[in-house]
Model the fold of this input.
Amino acid sequence: MKAFDALHHAVRAKEILAVLVRHGFADLLSQIDLPAGFWQRLLPHGPPPRTTAERFHLAAEELGPTFVKLGQLLSMRPDVVPHDIVLELRKLQDRVKPLPFETMRPVLERALGRPPAAVFADFDEVAVASASLAQVYFARRLETGEPVAIKIQKPDLQRRMEIDFDLARWLAGLLQERITALQKVDLVAVLDEACGAILRELDFRHEARNQEYFNTLNPHPERVFAPKVVPELSSECVLVMERISGTPIGQALALPAELRRRHAGWGAESLVRQVFVAGFFHADPHAGNIFVTTDGRLCFLDWGLAGHLTRRLRYALADFWIAAVEQDTEHIVQIAADLAPVNARPDLRAMEKEVTLALREELNFAIGRQALGRAMLRLLFILGQHGIPLSRDYSLMAKAVLSIDEVGRMLDPDFDLRRHTAPVLRELQWERMNPHTVVRRTREMLRHTLIGLQELPFELRRLVRRLEHDDLAINLQHRGLEKHDEAVRVAANRIALGVIIGALIIGSSLIVTTGIQPHLLGYPALGIIGYLLSALLGLYVIWDIIHHGRHR
Done:
């Protein structure tokens, strides 16, 4: 968004800048092209005695729901956000004061096409949960008597969020343009991706499909599950699902140690299986999104954001994971280089040193340091800083692993994620290397090779024909000459103006000597007009050289 466009949202822009100044980011704002009076006088801006990561956290909370959601999604991008900021942004709580039900009622009625009383009985108008996007209510289906939870989207949400998105993109563009350290990262693209994810969450049909898909793939419904959706009552703005009776796993510490150890293992094994076997996983399994039900199972809630991994990415991730556990730095760097874009030129030696240090600090098994989740965050950030932006779903995976690792340690002090990962990785390796897979891939390789050999003579004949008819063209692109081209154009324009000015002066002088009518100030008017035009053009050339000459 251009600065002029920001004037449409000037009030909100002033609020955002005021919050940033209050939390000690005045030095950052001083490096971009904002009028000093627009923000420097908003509030005193002495930086508070907190870390940068803590100040990001506090600023996002004060800026409201949109920036809380953005912060949460940026915490899922460890490839571009430093891991200390990632860890702090993960603490953002998406809980806000609930709106009165009368405000929410029109959304529910519009989605159902009838009054709620015609569909639900025992509708509790007091929200049991409230977040930035929606509120949740309990009721019973009038038709079946089944207890359900109803998630209702807040009214007029998209317009308010789009204003904040526009301002966030505008500010990110200025920061990226002016601050050298930020030019390695495409901040605007990262924000666009986060904004797209949030807007996708506004369509509850995606969440419903994710829950249904997980339950379809889940091999152990007796251990873990997602709430069943009531599709005939669900829509873009309303999600109706079975009501879960239980306790958030973060409040289950009173359970016997054996049960807590069992739940930690079930949750970890389910997530690892989601990532490595199914390639479809819950992207934010923190303690508030996992319930221990009354029948002793685990229920994963809030499927608005899920990760998806292709077969190739799953296999590469398995190799990456095994190499990290085995402290094999060279293999990690090699896998990352294989996944890098063709035009990437990473410094593999420097990257290897940084990866070694990260593994030594986060996965030092000799002293009991085995923070696999934190290690993944740091590794992805190192790769991103060296020009290897891995798949966004890898970032979601790292965040999910960190969350489930923390939940497991909370329930069981002796929790070891490696123990629950090993059998799943063995299953994945068998999927990759079993005889049936080897034969199938060999057959596919031979088929593609034979097809290529069959088409080769035809391609060669077509190339020879084009050579015979002089119809072969090679396109060459010169890179790095754009500035020179611009300089030549500017110089040519100035020379042309100089010639025009000289011609005007000479022509006007000749006209003045003739004394032809009409006169202006005692001289031929046409000659005077020519002098004035040449003077104006001359002043413009002088101003252009002084104002832009240094930059062109």
